Fold this sequence. Notes:
The structure is a single chain. This protein is α/β, with parallel strands linked by helices. It folds into two domains: 7-18 and 217-341, Rossmann fold (3-Layer(aba) Sandwich); 35-208, 3-Layer(aba) Sandwich (Rossmann fold), CATH 3.40.50. 40% of the residues lie in helices and 17% in strands. It has helices at residues 20-25, 48-60, 96-106, 117-127, 129-136, 152-166, 183-187, 189-196, 228-239, 249-256, 264-267, 285-300, 318-321, 326-341, and strands at residues 7-9, 64-66, 73-75, 85-91, 112-116, 141-145, 171-178, 204-208, 243-248, 271-279, 305-309. The strands form three sheets. It has a five-stranded parallel sheet, sandwiched between helices. Strand 2 and strand 3 form a beta hairpin. Helix 4 packs across helix 5, helix 5 packs parallel to helix 6 and helix 12 (285-300) crosses helix 14. Keywords: ATP-binding, Cell cycle, Cell division, Nucleotide-binding. This is Cell division protein ZapE. Pfam families: AFG1_ATPase.
Amino acid sequence: MTPAATGIVTLAERMPQLSGAEMVAALVPPPQFHEATFESYRADAEYPSQQAAKDTLIAFCGGGAPAARGGLFRRAKKAQPQKPGVYLDGGFGVGKTHLLASVYHAMPARRKYFGSFIEYTALVGAIGYQKTVELFRGADLLCIDEFELDDPGDTMVMTRLLGELVSTGTKLAATSNTPPNALGEGRFAAQDFLREIHAMASSFETVRIDGIDYRHRAVDGHAVTLSEGEYDAALADAAMSGLVSDDTFDGLVSHLAQVHPSRYIRLIDGVSVVGLRDVAEFSDQSAALRFVAFVDRVYDAQLPIRATGVSLDRVFPEEMLAGGYRKKYLRAISRLVASTLA
């Protein structure tokens, strides 16, 4: 067995390449959900909608789900939904991605795919719309995590793509995030979703999941910020047993503009800790959105972040948080806080 690489690398010096085939091969649940099942989903008794959602999704998968990998199927009480798609509507940390991954694992399908909204749109951008349709045509199941409702162009491309696939028998399961501290947004998340994908609205059954963030972290919590000395010591210690990245914040953010978002996952290939020096507040929204996409990949890979400078939960200024990408930024903040605590 080849020993794991150790030492320190600079992400801004990497220029990764990723073929369409490699992008498709990566469309599986992220590492923390590789073993997710309905049985391992712990429904909170104080929120009956969690158990109800679980039962509905078991039915969606064909009437039952394995008690464990290789185990026997059990019957769900609910009748199988008649619609080809289900949409999981709920806030941060209520287990939507766990349930979505459980759908992926439990569905008896020959061809199935699991990816975030940005992974699917990045694939369209990389290989073209028609090739993407041809690639997915005949698939049994598409799972779409964190369906983005803030980019009309991408939303319409996905709506068109999903419409073509549903017409040939593909089943769909999707989630999108709503901040738990925005009750008004939470109440209307399902309507937002169905309105934005109006051409497909009749294909989805909405499954509401109430509850609080299981991580018990406030969205406005603070990320851990290190002094220069603490940062150097943390990276040096981590580099003894694994590969660690060390970049200036401005340097990495500038480099992200040179790399297609579909390739961000390759930027962190082999890395065990991400280091960011001199973190600063964003002034450019395009740069901020690219960083959000990068944070998604870091979070999916369950990589800890070590940082100096401005607290990472404060990199998005108030005017950005008050704008149309509010949900996306709040999700990134939640993930940044978690990553600095890891």
